[in-house]
Design goal:
The complex is a heterodimer.
Chain A (H helix, E strand, L loop, with lengths): L2 H9 L3 H23 L2 H18 L9 H33 L22 H11 L4 H12 L4 H8 L3 H27 L1
Helix pairs in contact in A: 1-2, 2-3, 2-4, 2-6, 3-4, 4-7, 5-8, 6-8, 7-8
Chain B lengths: L1 H15 L13 H66 L10
The chains are: A mainly alpha, B mainly alpha.
Chain lengths: ~190, ~100
């Protein structure tokens, strides 16, 4: 079944077509989201949201880009929304903990846990993802799509709806910013 | 200088760690969970629509009742006002003996 047939079937509410879509894209959606949220439970939650959104908005898909590109775009937006919501909750928790009886911080995210990271690199990856989390959204998206999903600059440009030159610039700025953060971290740790 | 080189090396090493990340397998029950979520959302939306419909109906009934009450009250008040004015005039006419034609020229 090609993309257009799949879209037509989905618009008619075909359950089998929807199952096929979920099975085809679940791995890439989950891994993309996981790179952003860095927690399995949260990634599962956001992945479900992505497919619900796909189901609800498939009729508005105009076919101007590939279906996979559109799904990637939804995944990134949902992941970034989730991160924004989580940081809002965290800020609120900081305020409520000031007035609460106990000083424990509610809703605080636990330690970094990405099951795709090999044991020897766990510590390094945790440092790297902490630095990635400080990047602006667009730089973060471009960097993660390239490094975790092996997307080409052209594909990233399609997903982010910018031109290839902009992607190149985003990637080089992301790398420079990460390097700067990591060098500062190293100096700070050594002092 | 040496410290800078070490820091650069450290940054490069940390940056390389992302290339070792393996793709993670997804839970087999994802589709069922997505379906459940869609159904729950649908039920919730239907519930909200039902509440919205009932509230709209209540509001409509309230407006109709208000309109009807206003209409009947104004109608009765006008009629009562006219009757009252008419009885006042007849009392005045009786007082000054204007009820019968008693002119005698």
């Amino acid at each position: 079944m090609n993309d257009q047939d799949l879209i037509n079937a989905l618009c008619k509410g075909d359950e089998k077509a929807f199952k096929l879509l979920v099975d085809t894209y679940k791995k890439s959606v989950f891994n993309t989201v996981l790179a952003f949220v860095q927690r399995v439970e949260s990634a599962e939650d956001v992945t479900q949201d992505v497919f619900v959104k796909v189901f609800e908005t498939i009729a508005s898909f105009k076919g101007q880009s590939k279906l996979s590109t559109w799904i990637y775009r939804i995944s990134i937006n949902q992941a970034l929304d989730f991160i924004r919501r989580a940081s809002r909750k965290k800020r609120l928790a900081r305020i409520t903990s000031l007035f609460g009886a106990d000083n424990e911080l509610l809703h605080e995210q636990t330690d970094f846990y990405h099951p795709g990271v090999i044991m020897e690199q766990k510590e390094n990856a945790a440092i790297l993802f902490k630095a990635i989390n400080r990047l602006p959204d667009k730089q973060k998206a471009a960097f993660l799509l390239q490094r975790t999903e092996d997307c080409s600059q052209q594909k990233i440009a399609e997903i982010m709806q910018v031109n290839e030159g902009a992607v190149e610039s985003l990637l080089s700025r992301a790398k420079a910013n990460l390097k700067k953060t990591l060098i500062n971290y190293y100096k700070h740790e050594k002092e | 200088m040496r410290k800078n080189n070490e820091a650069e090396k450290f940054a490069e090493e940390i940056l390389r760690s992302i290339d070792t990340i393996q793709p993670v397998e997804v839970d087999d029950f994802l589709f069922t969970r997505v379906q459940n979520r869609i159904n729950t959302k649908l039920h919730r939306r239907q519930g909200q629509m039902r509440v919205f419909y009932r509230l709209s109906m209540a509001l409509l009934l309230f407006i109709v009742l208000n309109g009807a009450t206003y209409y009947f009250l104004t109608k009765t008040a006008t009629r009562a006002g006219n009757d009252h004015a008419a009885s006042g005039l007849s009392a005045f006419a009786e007082e000054y003996k204007m009820t019968q034609n008693s002119y005698n020229y």
